[in-house]
Amino acid sequence: MVLITGILGQLGFDLAKELTKRGVEYVAPSLEELELTTEAGAKNFILDKKPDVIAHCAAYTAVDKAESEAELAITVNGMGTRWVAEAAREVGAKMIYISTDYVFGGDGKIPYEVDDEKKPVNVYGRSKLLGEDAVNAIVDKHFIVRTSWVFGINGHNFIKTMLKLGQTKDKINVVNDQIGSPTYTVDLAKLLADMMATEKYGTYHATNEGFCSWAEFTREIFKQAGLKVEVDGIPTAEYPTPARRPFNSRLSKKSLDEAGFERLPTWQDALARYLVELKK
């Protein structure tokens, strides 16, 4: 039996759907049943249900807000994950921890390997790295999966924001010097379901294939959606945010290849399927 934290989020929602398709039993605690700001809140549901696998998708993900709510972000993503990891060890469960490209410094243009130096440039990245460190130290049977630029049906994301803007604007400015990989939670969920059925523990990078800037991503969104909107690429310096963003979010898939896991489809293909799903 699989325990999914964060089922109301984009990834948790699609992981639940994927496990249902495969006939895999899962439980998904509510925010009240598994609460990541206290030790008892984070552990009791897990200790009661004794799952075989914990897919820890829940997190504090408000990147800009984390700069002013550092204590909360670090508690949820750092300590909360530590408590979940301790409970996983106690019940003998495998643990999947969803992490982020933000644990890296975002320098250069070369895709990051899993063991490259960690230099997070914002509070959110630091909080997620604390979670990684806890899982590494506590749970032997673990998968740490770093991803980036996530989009799914359930919840808010960049694509939904751009589609909404595209209904009322004929020209928008979008950052063009941050490079990464959009990732569809439907595709990532399939990989996680494959992983948890194995004992190929370790740290992985998992995103849809290909790299782009936010501006390039936006142009493809409008193109596939049939919206005539001009996209002007601007430097990050012209679009300041409370949290600093990494310029290089490219992640190497070497770890997936070496373990024999299938890479995800291209981000353009993922976007096309997502837009179809949005219309349903």
Largest sheet: 6 strands, parallel
Give me the side-by-side strand order of the main sheet. Answer: 2-1-3-4-5-10
General shape: globular
* Alpha carbon gyration radius: 18 Å
Please name the CATH architecture. 3-Layer(aba) Sandwich
Distance, first to last CA: 30 Å
Determine the CATH superfamily. Answer: NAD(P)-binding Rossmann-like Domain
Unreliable parts: none
Number of domains: 1
Mean pLDDT, to the nearest integer, reads: 97
Number of helices: 9
> What is the helical fraction, as a range of percent?
40-55%
Task: Describe the secondary-structure layout.
Elements: E1 2-5, H1 10-21, E2 26-27, H2 39-49, E3 53-56, H3 70-91, E4 94-100, H4 123-138, E5 142-147, E6 150-151, H5 158-166, E7 171-175, E8 179-180, E9 183-184, H6 185-196, E10 202-205, E11 212-213, H7 214-225, E12 230-234, H8 254-259, H9 267-279
Parallel strand pairs: 1-2, 1-3, 3-4, 4-5, 5-10, 6-9, 7-12
Antiparallel strand pairs: 8-11
Helix pairs in contact: 1-6, 2-3, 3-4, 5-7, 7-9
Question: Any overview of this molecule?
Answer:
By secondary structure, this protein is an alpha/beta fold. The protein has a single domain (2-157, 181-210, 250-264), classed as NAD(P)-binding Rossmann-like Domain (Rossmann fold, 3-Layer(aba) Sandwich). The protein has nine helices and twelve strands. It has helices at residues 10-21, 39-49, 70-91, 123-138, 158-166, 185-196, 214-225, 254-259, 267-279; strands at residues 2-5, 26-27, 53-56, 94-100, 142-147, 150-151, 171-175, 179-180, 183-184, 202-205, 212-213, 230-234. The strands form four sheets. The chain has a six-stranded parallel β-sheet, with helices on both faces. Helix 2 (39-49) packs parallel to helix 3 (70-91) and helix 5 packs across helix 7. The two termini are 30 Å apart. The model has no long low-confidence stretch (mean pLDDT 97).
